[in-house]
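Hypothesis: this fold can be encoded by more than one sequence.
Test: take the structure tokens below, design a sequence, compare later.
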């Protein structure tokens, strides 16, 4: 499968180093330097991944929103000089897949892009051509679509994969590291390239889309100190006392 990168760069200086390195790695690279041309590029080039480079936070938020509306399942990586945690969290909450501060190491950037694309390809190939149903929710694996009460939800590819992973074992608690491995594709040797808070941000974003009241979730739940789990029934996860009894046996 051809891997196509779309670099959305602000300014007049062409990021020749990025283009040269990724072309050496075997990627097809397209460059967009005007906001007005972003949507045509998305529709015509159909990128495998988007790299957003060196935009101010408000402009970056606007571009992320445009990309998400037209290509919600395409991973988007932000390269930014903005180092504040708030800017990073906002970008991730709006749909960015990853965030790297400028200056960065080229080898790290390439490693992250490879990891995201490798995981995306694996998940696309591994999806079964069938529909999975619960009481309230439905997943169409062939179309990569998630429904609540027969209404399709607009999810990014990462959000969809998170729900798909949690639904493979309903009521099973997945640790954040497990989710980083299964959904983001990071192995133990690659953990230095990831931020575990990415899981929390994505969970928060998904809750806003699937829960009637995101502040009081009934489906995507937290088990403090352990991780996250999904349930379709409004039932409490086993309390500590029942766990203690099981362990003593």
């Amino acid at each position: 499968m051809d891997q196509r990168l779309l670099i959305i760069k602000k300014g007049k200086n062409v990021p020749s180093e990025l283009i040269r390195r990724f072309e050496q790695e075997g990627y097809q690279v397209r460059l967009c330097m005007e906001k007005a041309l972003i949507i045509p590029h998305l529709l015509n080039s159909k990128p495998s991944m988007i790299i957003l480079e060196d935009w101010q936070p408000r402009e970056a938020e606007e571009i992320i929103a445009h990309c998400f509306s037209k290509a919600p399942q395409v991973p988007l990586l932000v390269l930014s000089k903005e180092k504040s945690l708030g800017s990073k969290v906002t970008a991730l909450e709006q749909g960015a897949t990853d965030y790297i501060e400028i200056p960065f190491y080229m080898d790290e950037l390439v490693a992250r892009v490879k990891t995201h694309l490798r995981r995306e390809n694996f998940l696309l190939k591994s999806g079964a051509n069938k529909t999975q149903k619960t009481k309230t929710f439905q997943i169409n694996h062939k179309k990569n679509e998630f429904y609540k009460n027969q209404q399709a939800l607009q999810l990014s590819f990462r959000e969809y994969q998170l729900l798909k992973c949690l639904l493979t074992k309903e009521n099973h608690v997945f640790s954040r590291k497990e989710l980083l491995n299964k959904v983001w594709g990071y192995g133990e040797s690659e953990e230095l390239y990831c931020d575990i808070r990415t899981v929390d941000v994505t969970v928060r974003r998904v809750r806003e889309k699937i829960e009637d009241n995101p502040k009081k979730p009934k489906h995507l739940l937290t088990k403090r100190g352990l991780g996250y789990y999904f349930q379709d029934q409004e039932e409490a996860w086993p309390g500590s006392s029942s766990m203690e009894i099981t362990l003593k046996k």
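The domain at 4-122 is CATH 3.40.50.2300 (Rossmann fold). The CA atoms of residues 159 and 206 lie 6 Å apart.
Hypothesis status: open.
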